Amino acid sequence: MLSSKKSIFSLLVLFLFLFSTVGCANEAVNTSEINTGTKKLQKVKITQPNFLEAWLPVYVANELGYFAEEGLEIEFVTVMGGHNVRAAVIAGEAQFGHTGYEQVASTFEQGKSCKMIMTTTEKHPWSYFVGQDIESIADLKGKNIDGGLEGSSYRSFAKAVIQFGGLDPDKDVQFVNIPRGSEIAALEKGEVHGALGADSNTVHLLNQGFKQVVNMIDEKDHKAVVGSDTYPLFVIMVSDEYIKSNSEQVQAFTNAVVKGMDFIKENDAQTIKETIAPLFSHVDEKILGEYIALIMPALSADGYVSEEGHDVAIKYALDVGFIENPVGMDDIVDHSFLDVAHSK
Fold first, then answer.
1. Residues 212-262 pLDDT 10s
2. Order of all β-strands in the sheet with 96-100
3. pLDDT tens digits for 294-316?
4. What are the residue ranges spanned by the domains of the chain?
5. Which residues contact 127 (CB under 8 A, 6 or more apart)?
6. Domain covering 42-123+231-343 assigned CATH 3.40.190.10 in the classification
7. Which CATH number is associated with domain 127-215?
C-alpha cells in the first residue's frame, strides 16, 4: 500500500514537472513573438516643401514598410519652401530633407556642411503654363507670373524658363508666390499670366487646355532649358554632422529608399498610385495615377548623381543667380550609402 502511494506521488511530481516545463517553453515563445512584433523603431523626421510625386521612392518605402524593416519610423514635416527645408536639416530639427540640388549647393556656399545622399530624379520633371491671352514666353514681359518663394527651387525654375524665352528674369517679369493647387484659378482670374506645373496639378492644367510653353519631360525642351538630357533636381540632403554621428540610420534610410526604387522599376503607375495614395489623400486618385505615369520617365533608377548631372545643375544654379561660385561634386554628394545599399 505504501509502495502504491509512493508510486502515485512520484507520478504526480513528474506530471507537475512536465506541465511546468511546457508552460515555461510556451511562455518563452510568446515573449519572443511579442519582442519581435514590438521592435523599437528609431524615429526620424523628413522635412519637405510639400508631398511631391518626384520623391516617389521615399513614399513607396514608407507605405510598404521598408523603413520599418530597417528599424526606422518616419515623420514627414512640411515647411514653406526649399530654403526652410535646408534650414531645418542644418539646425538638426529634421534628419533628412527633401529639396532641390541647387539648394544644397547654396547651403555649402554659405559655409554649412551637408551632403546629398541620393537623387530621386534623373531629369527635371516640371512644366510651365501660360494664360489664354499668352502665346509665348516673350509675351510674359511686364506681367505677373507664378515663381514660388524667393530662394526656392520653384523660383530657380521659373527664372530658367524666362531666360529660355529670351527675357531677363530680374527686370522683365514680376514673380508672385501663389499656393500650389491654385494655379488654374490664378490664371483664369488674371492674377498671374504664367504658372508652374510642378505636381499633379499639371494634369488639371493640361485637361483645362492651358498652353504648356515648357515641358521638361520632353527631351527637346529639357535640353533647350538646362543644356543636357539629365538634371538631378529632386534630392535628399543630410547634414555632415548627422552623417558622422548617425551613419547607421543614414544607411538604413538609404537601404529602404533603394528598395522603393526597385519596387517602382518592377510595377506600373496604377500599382504605385495605389501604394502611395494614403499619403496623397488631397489628390484625386485618377489624377494622381495620370501624373505618376507622366513623370515616371524622369525618375532615377538607382539614385546616383552623374558628373554631367552635377555640372549641369551647378551651371543652372549659377545662371539663375542661385549661387555665386562653382561647387565641387565631392563637396556636396556622398554616394557611399548608395554603394552599400546596392551591394545587398
1. 999 999 999 999 999 999 999 999 999 999 999 999 999 999 999 999 999
2. 72-78, 42-48, 96-100, 234-239, 114-119
3. 999 999 999 999 999 999 999 99
4. 42-123+231-343, 127-215
5. 196, 197, 198, 202, 205, 212, 214, 215, 216, 217
6. yes
7. 3.40.190.10
